[in-house]
Write a structure and sequence with these properties.
Distance between the termini: 50 Å
Largest sheet: 4 strands, antiparallel
Oligomer: single chain
Radius of gyration: 22 Å
Order of helices and strands: HEEEHEEEEEEEEHEEEEEEEEEEEE
Number of strands: 23
Strand order of the largest sheet: 3-4-5-6
Number of helices: 3
Shape: globular
Length: about 280
């Protein structure tokens, strides 16, 4: 694994050639869902490479002493024809691959009903990237694998999701000039897609508060802007509360408190007003 860059194929990006190495957070052990927690399913670093020496896609998991190769079935296409390898992991604790072959994108994912890997696609597009959005807000139950890619003319950014079996194409942005897409990474309750001439961030993901009986609070900064945040509080106890305190200066953009009271007898959620400057609703 230490020589992955030297052993991997490389795809052309302008005047540079980029190693076919993809990284993602994944399970402690392949196929072992355990307690279903974030640490169990996404607490280990993984990497995949298109190895030009072995002519295989190879998967490695990080260990305290280095990287160990984990055996996986070969992909359905010759590696010399594949480019822009992408890696993610889903709730089944199995890897998901995406790659491009001749301006068509193929997805390989685990099918729990069949007990084997299956393919989705091909979809017309280039520069596929993957992420499981559990890496974005650390909430596994509602997580999904996202596939982002560009149209062949590189002037539109598209998305498909595993929950829909990648069958529905969602439009994100259009561009006047061709772009490239290289990275899709978690960024503090947002994901960020980056490339040459392209930088796109998602909307803010919610922050889930799942204690049995407690309060949810967000402390303010003392100066400058307060970044938008969403709190979701699901209360199943007799009484509880959720509060957001205001900043003391500058602007206070949107704060959303989503409250699911269920059958509670008494509960409350409140947002205090700022003491000065502007308050946006």
């Amino acid at each position: 694994m230490l020589t992955a860059k030297a052993q991997s194929y490389k795809y052309k990006r302008g005047k540079y050639r980029v190693p076919e190495v993809a990284k993602a957070a994944g399970p402690q052990q392949m196929g072992a869902t355990g307690d279903g927690s974030y640490l169990t399913l996404f607490g280990r670093n993984w990497a995949a490479i298109l190895n030009k020496k072995t002519q295989q896609v190879e998967l490695y998991g990080e260990t305290p002493t280095g990287w160990e190769q984990v055996p996986i079935p070969p992909i359905a296409h010759p590696t010399r024809e594949c480019r822009h390898l992408a890696l993610a992991f889903d709730q089944s604790a199995r890897h998901v691959f995406a790659y491009e072959v001749g301006e068509q994108i193929f997805i390989r994912q685990w099918d729990a009903l069949l007990g084997e890997f299956v393919y989705r696609g091909p979809f017309v597009g280039v520069d596929p990237v993957l992420i499981n959005d559990a890496e974005v807000n650390y909430f596994v139950p509602d997580s999904d694998v996202l596939l982002l890619y560009l149209t062949p003319d590189r002037k539109s950014l598209k998305m498909r999701v595993q929950r829909q079996l990648y069958a529905i194409e969602h439009h994100i942005e259009s561009y006047a000039t061709p772009k490239t897409l290289d990275i899709l990474a978690p960024l503090g309750y947002q994901w960020q897609a980056e490339g040459d001439g392209l930088n796109v961030r998602s909307e803010m993901y919610p922050v889930y508060i799942s204690e049995m009986a407690a309060s949810g609070a967000v402390s303010p900064p003392t100066t400058w802007d307060y970044i938008p945040i969403v709190l979701i509080q699901n209360l199943n106890e007799i009484a509880a509360s959720g509060a957001v305190s205001p900043p003391t200066t500058w602007n206070y953009p949107l704060v959303v408190m989503v409250y699911n009271g269920g059958v509670d007898v008494a509960a409350s959620a409140s947002v205090s007003a700022p003491v000065q400057w502007n308050y946006y609703v």
